[in-house]
Amino acid sequence: MRYLSASTLIWVLALLLPVVALISLTLGTIEIPVVELLRTIASAPVGVIDGTQTSIILFDIRLPRVLLSLLVGAVLASTGAVMQGLFRNPLADPSLVGVSGGASVGASLVIVFAGGLSIGPLSGLSLVVSGAFVGGFIATLVVYRVATSSLGTSVTTMLLAGIAIGALAGAVNSLLSYVSDNQMLRQISVWQMGNLSGANWLKVGIMGAVSVCLLTLLPSQIKALNALLLGESEARYLGIDVQRIKSKLIFLTALGVGVSVALAGLIGFVGLVIPHIIRLLIGPDHRRLLPASALAGASLLMIADSIARVVVLPAELPTGILTALIGAPFFVALLVRQRRDI
Amino acid sequence: MIAENISLHLAGFDLLRNINLTVESGKVTALVGPNGAGKSSLLKVLTGDIKPSCGRVLLNSRELQQWALTDRANILAVLPQHTQLNFPFTASEVVELGCIPHLTGYAKDREITSSALQLVDASYLQKRLYTEMSGGEKQRVQLARVLAQIWSPSDLGDQFLVLDEPTSAFDLSHQQMILDIVRQFADRGVGVLMVLHDLNLAAKCADNLVVMNGGTIEAQGKPDKVLTEQLIDKVFAVRSSIRRHPVTDTPLVIT
Fold first, then answer.
1. How many CB atoms are closer than 10 A to CB B230?
2. How does the average pLDDT of chain A come out, rounded?
3. Which of A235, A245, A266, A340 makes an SS bond possible with A224, Cβ 3.0 to 4.6 Å?
4. Could you give the residue ranges of the DSSP H alpha helices within A115-228?
């Protein structure tokens, strides 16, 4: 028996999202009162971005940051749900396909060997971002190729290959940290903690494009994902082209997670635990699990990032630390409650 | 469904040799044989899981591989021996998965789902979570899912139902229930192929009894003709005595 109807949860989360976003916009080193915030936003469409401090903070710094955390949270949580379905393992994680490990190696390599140069025309994107994306993509490709034979892609092999690649990436990372100087070391470790402070409109645009891409391509795979939970043979008996679906989903996840990690660093926990929590509440049907996870992931990351901005004023914490700090105890509480019910 | 001259070699083993088998629509075909006789391998070939090394499988006189997957799912439903489902779907949600190949809409799917659950005596499970059910309950829910898949006749031709040891977790009354269900579907024109371990159960329900041994078909035909003491001794290495069932007048194997 379930306690919560799926549509109720989705409505609550959908209503929560704008509220969280609004509150998140007011918080930071400089607080913007809600009234002033609304006035500044209201006056923007007319073209009078008046150059006051408030509007500069709001439109150049805070709004892109809040939007980026919203999008990254939504993408991480929904791809997490997809991976758990694909691997038929509620403890799978988007990083399983090797994306995170590869991305962190890519980022570290760039930090150590190329410094913090930026690419000419896309000066908003540092080389680190591109390094992370390329690294993540290559790692996924390797894991996928290792697990794919003439008989198709074995998710079990993929899981193991993902672990192996993860370990390899960890070793390379340690090696790079070992040979790097103090400043590089700090840069590497801050990147690995996950950080949304570098948000700008270019990043929001890229993340937005990826989100739109996932939003249009994922819904058509939902039935297949549900069938896959029964097992691959069973899904095939139900008329699902299992191999095509697997490749597609792995590619979409790698794209979503790869870009997220490249833009925001390693933000753990959201992709693993949000879908898990949502599944405990409303069941594993992906028609409802995916949208609910996306909404919850978006809210969680915005909340975590808001706290990260204000908790150690005037400095700020890396967001990745906060997601785990908030999410883990909540998850444990949920597990304890569930055990009591059984 | 016709299997023509099927052989299967995998990893240096001859799993199947020269199998010829017809699953007639409207009839119940039971497949029996000792462990390792190749029953599961044969099912895998017949359901398209494995391509045979030689030979071919025809489904409504068209080769299995040439069917579009969704079309095939509308005429061929398969219940594997074990289904590893570790996600807490409700029984209704599991059965609804069986409606995926249909394009008949949500209302119709709901109707089929609840009728299928009712047929397998699992209406009371509707809102229960699959992960919290007993083995027999799970098996009934999976059976309902497979039945839902071919619940309505298809305009793509005769439909087939393949069940791999469907009775393994059932109590006596549910064993009888599955025989009734299978007969009901056969009467509607569905061709049923069932792997069974209980020879008496097979004798009771089968129109065509197929005995496999060592990757080949040892004997096939009416249970009356096929089941002999010599055959059982040869295939299962068990001494037995064959009598008639006092009520159904089917062969009764006593060991």
1. 8
2. 85
3. A245
4. 127-147, 155-179, 182-193, 201-217, 222-228
Q: In chain B, how many domains are there?
A: 1
Q: Do B86 and A88 touch (CB under 8 A)?
A: yes
Alpha-carbon span B68 to B54, nearest angstrom: 21
The whole domain housing A72 covers 6-341
The answer to whether the beta carbons of residues B58 and B6 sit under 8 Å apart is: no
Pick left, alpha or beta for residue B152 (phi over 0 → left; psi -120 to 50 → alpha; otherwise beta): beta
Question: B-chain residues within 8 Å CB-CB of A233?
Answer: 49, 78, 80
With beta carbons under 8 A apart, name residues in chain A contacting B87: 88, 90, 229, 279, 284
Tell if the CB–CB gap between B69 and A241 is shorter than 8 Å.
yes
| Structure-model confidence comparison of residues B103 and B253, the more confident one | B253
Run of H or E including A235: helix A232-237
Contact flag B80-A1 (C-beta cutoff 8 Å): no
Q: For the complex shown, is ipTM > 0.95?
A: no
CB-based contact, B170 to chain A, within 8 Å? no
Q: What is the least distance, in Å, from the CA of A342 to any CA of chain B?
A: 9
What confidence tens digit (pLDDT) does each residue in B53-97 have? 999 999 998 999 899 999 999 999 999 988 888 899 999 999 999
A90 in reach of chain B (CB within 8 A): yes
Q: Which residues on adjacent β-strands are paired with residue A148?
A: A153
pLDDT per residue as tens digits for the range A102-144: 988 988 888 888 765 554 445 556 788 888 888 988 888 888 8
> Quick check: is A250 in a domain?
yes
Contact A74, A82 (CB under 8 A): no
Cβ–Cβ pairs < 8 A, chains A and B: 72
The CATH number covering residue A183 comes to 1.10.3470.10
The rounded distance, in Å, linking the Cα atoms of A333 and A31 is 32
The amino acid occupying position A112 is: V
Shortest distance, CA A224 to any CA of chain B (angstroms): 9
Strand ordering across the sheet containing B208-213? B76-79, B160-164, B191-195, B28-32, B208-213, B216-221
CATH code assigned at B134: 3.40.50.300
Would you say residue A1 lies in a domain?
no
Q: Which residue from B23, B38, B245 is spatially nearest to B227, judged by alpha carbons?
A: B245
Rounded alpha-carbon distances, angstroms, from residue B164 to A35, A253, B71, B235, B252: 67, 35, 22, 20, 22
| Shortest alpha-carbon distance between residue A123 and chain B (Å) | 46
Inter-chain contact B100–A223, Cβ cutoff 8 Å?
yes
The domain total for chain A is: 1
Say whether B80 and A233 touch across the interface (CB within 8 A). Answer: yes
Structural domain boundaries enclosing B83:
2-254
Q: Do B74 and A239 touch (CB under 8 A)?
A: yes
* Pairing mode of beta strands B13-22, B2-10: antiparallel
Q: What is the pLDDT of residue A125?
A: 63
Burial class of residue B212 (count of CB atoms within 10 Å of its CB; 0-12, 13-18, 19+):
buried
